[in-house]
Amino acid sequence: MKALFPHAAMSHGITVRVAASFLPEQSQPEAARWFWTYHVRIENGSDETVQLRSRHWRITDGRGGVGIVEGEGVVGEQPVLAPGQSHDYVSGCPLDTPHGSMEGFYTFETADGSPLEVRIPFFPLAAPATAN
Questions:
Q1: Which residues does the UniProt record annotate as the domain ApaG (predicted)?
Q2: Model pTM?
Q3: Bigger pLDDT: 131 vs 7
Q4: Mean pLDDT of the chain
Q5: Contact 22/84 with Cβ under 8 angstroms?
Q6: Is 17 exposed, middle or buried (0-12, 13-18, 19+ CB in 10 A)?
Q7: Residue 4 — pLDDT band, cuts 50, 70, 90?
Q8: Contact (Cβ atoms closer than 8 angstroms) between residue 52 and residue 108
Q9: pLDDT in tens, 27-81
Q10: What superfamily would CATH give domain 7-126?
Q11: C-alpha separations of 71 from 3, 11, 58, 127 in Å
């Protein structure tokens, strides 16, 4: 059985863990649409309280096309994490190819207003093989 979060990266004492799942019921291969959900867990292992301010995703499709998604917070939230706390959320990603990948970073702010760039690990998006 796969680990619950097979992809992880740590920056500034903050660990970002990711697990992606292909959703066949949301996908339409005949229309060149494949869909995944990804579950992210952010763990504050540092010794200071931080707030997630923004996200920057680099999404690459199976042809090497790159899309950048940036914005405030995650799924409408800007969680504050005290030392030892974690935050989980789930989001989704459509692609027009059956394979791709995601990676990026979050920008956190410390109590004194200093920004911290925290890496989101690279993770593949791969639909199961289908008969032609």
A1: 8-132
A2: 0.93
A3: 7
A4: 94
A5: no
A6: buried
A7: confident
A8: yes
A9: 999 999 999 999 999 999 999 999 999 999 999 999 999 999 999 999 999 999 9
A10: ApaG domain (2.60.40.1470)
A11: 29, 20, 12, 27
Neighbours of 128 (CB within 10 A): 7
Distance CA 107, CA 101 (A): 20
Residue with tokens 């917070």: 73
Q: Name the one residue in this structure whose structure tokens are 């867990």.
A: 41
Q: Strands 50-61 and 66-72, how do they pair?
A: antiparallel
Judge residue 63's burial from the number of C-beta atoms within 10 Å of its C-beta, 0-12 exposed, 13-18 middle, 19 or more buried: exposed
Reported in sequence order, the residue ranges of the chain that DSSP labels E, i.e. its strands, are 7-11, 14-22, 34-44, 50-61, 66-72, 80-81, 86-95, 99-110, 115-126
